[in-house]
Sequence to fold (386 residues):
Amino acid sequence: MTTLYFDHAASTPCDPRVRDVLMNALEHTNANPHSTTYEAGRAATHMVEHARAHVATLIGADPREIIFTSGATESNNLAIKGAVRHLKHMGSTRRRVITIATEHKCVLQSVTDLKTEGFESVILPVDSEGRLAPETLIHALETPTALVSIAAVNNETGVLQDLTLFGRLIHEAGALFHSDLAQAAGKITLNVRDLCLSLASISSHKLYGPKGTGALFIRRTPRVRLHPLFSGGGQERGLRSGTLPGFLLAGFGEACHIADQEHTQDYQHLTHLQSLFLNRLKQKIPGCCVNANSAPRFPGIISLRLPKGIKALDVISHLPTLAVSLGSACSSAVLEPSYVLQAMGLPRSEAERSLRFSPGRFSTVIDIERAVDELADAVSQIHETN
Fold:
């Protein structure tokens, strides 16, 4: 039986239209985009700049504000570390760097890493719905702050933070504002100008583009400056050295172009699928609930808590044709409480019952029905053996 893929929050499949552009570029445009003394190199450069324009349009930026990276992890590291190191180098006395407890690991680690360089790393708590309270941020900003990093959409629960409000507060406090948009770009309507963002990270493979590439938005007015993470030939405005993978960027650009045209349609589709999923779940498996159910959430990410006595890891072992992820990290077959769910106040026993379902652009109603039915069968089998 065909595997049902419900892990789009981890990675999306390449859209067939993206794949066509990708393969055409791989076959026909193979010159180095930094070699502009001959026609093939100029063609590769044009292809890269065409992709850059599509990425910029998707988030309301200027193409000159987009630099390409290997993905959101690199973008997050470059944004957070690069920005505060430059401020320090320029004589700024601001040493506080703020993020929240439910951020992606690479953001949390980047902020924590800066402690060794004399910065004050501050991890703010969230409420039981996974949201940051404005007053908590306001209090934290009373100490002069260099940078704040808050994701638009949480990768595990789908919870949306109020970036419009937070952007204003951070701007008024004189700090830089970075957001990891990996789960948001191309999925919800956003504009970096409206959100007062200084820096923003994007990942290609989260929006139906190829793996291995991403982008970082760096505001030009007022200008944000960064220290590069590594040395090299000075490509990407001296901020990210290395030869650009033109064919990957062509695919990334096309993925952004499609998302720009179709994200409203995609959002409506996912909202419909989420409604069907939850209604059928209620009928088939009483006792299930959604983590952060009362918070505004992106409909393509559902953090599902199974009935009492049913562990997520046990359920997954009974779902050979259903691709879902644990609501908690799994290491050496031992379920550990998710730091995201822990930060929301869930005890270990409830974290162990959580699964993440994330349908996507190509998921169908039939897929939803099959997924719930297979999940119900798995829960029933576990009940019978307990």
Remarks:
- The mean pLDDT is 94.
- Residues 4-10+263-385 form a domain with the Aspartate Aminotransferase, domain 1 fold (CATH 3.90.1150.10).
- Residues 246-284 form the longest helix (39 residues).
